[in-house]
Design goal:
Radius of gyration: 22 Å
Largest sheet: 8 strands, mixed, barrel
Structural class: alpha+beta
Order of helices and strands: HHEEHEEEEEE
Strand order of the largest sheet: 1-2-3-4-7-8-6-5
């Protein structure tokens, strides 16, 4: 007499099928959710910025003046001390400033990064923590804050793709001359790609401030899925 399969076998097959479907569709679902959340974050940020501008518009007061002055002072000190605090990768995580001290929530983006050539738009956060990497790009600690100016080099780092989300996945498609935009509380800055390099993770000298220059540097793991080195995109201020 032939033995019938028990219900546990059908449950096992169903479970295996569900796991397979999840693995198949998870990257696409995660990517879609991230795009929606990112678009919402940027929209909320822009709306809050518009409201703040309306509040100070009639007095022609600089938006968040204390924060701007603090960022300016921080960048000046970095240039003067030769970024002495940038002693290793562990220094990257620390946020340069505590945003609640300036009337903002701690997890408020300080800028929006836009790269039309690769269809990229991400919020930018202070401090290269895993939480910030999961939400967008991050300003490395002990590098210039994103306000531009002579003797500055704002270094933005991001994942080279993670859990189906591209992040900085396609930075290797950029070419010299491509434009990169950084929108802050005080306006929109335009940079152009001037140099592309691959470095070792401990080559800190490669991301230091360059005297007399106004730079934005993009940093991510390289090669894709391996990450033994770092891809560096140097961008120089154009407007």
């Amino acid at each position: 007499m032939r033995r019938q399969n028990g219900p546990w076998l059908w449950l096992l097959l169903l479970f295996g099928t569900l796991i397979g479907l999840w693995l198949l569709f998870y990257p696409a679902v995660n990517r879609t959710v991230f795009r929606w959340e990112t678009a919402r974050t940027i929209q909320d940020w822009e709306e809050a910025l518009d409201t703040a501008r309306e509040t100070v518009g009639q007095t022609k007061t600089l938006l968040y003046p204390e924060l701007y002055l603090a960022m300016t002072d921080y960048n000046r000190q970095l240039a003067e001390n030769g970024q002495a605090g940038l002693t290793g990768p562990e220094a990257y995580e620390a946020a340069a400033l505590h945003l609640p001290d300036y009337g903002l929530e701690e997890e408020t983006p300080v800028a929006v990064l836009s790269i039309p050539a690769i269809g990229l738009e991400l919020p930018v956060y202070l401090g290269a923590t895993q939480e910030h990497f999961s939400k967008g790009a991050a300003v490395l600690g002990e590098t210039s804050l994103p306000i531009g100016g002579e003797d500055t080099n704002c270094v933005l780092a991001g994942h080279r793709g993670y859990r189906g989300i591209p992040y900085f996945r396609h930075l290797d498609r950029l070419e010299r001359g491509d434009l990169v935009y950084l929108t802050t509380f005080w306006g929109k800055m335009a940079y152009a790609v001037t140099e592309i390099a691959v470095i070792a993770p401990n080559e800190i000298d490669a991301i230091l401030i360059r005297e007399g220059q106004d730079l934005l540097t993009l940093l991510t793991c390289h090669p894709y899925t391996v990450g033994t080195h770092r891809l560096v995109i140097y961008c120089e201020r154009r407007a």
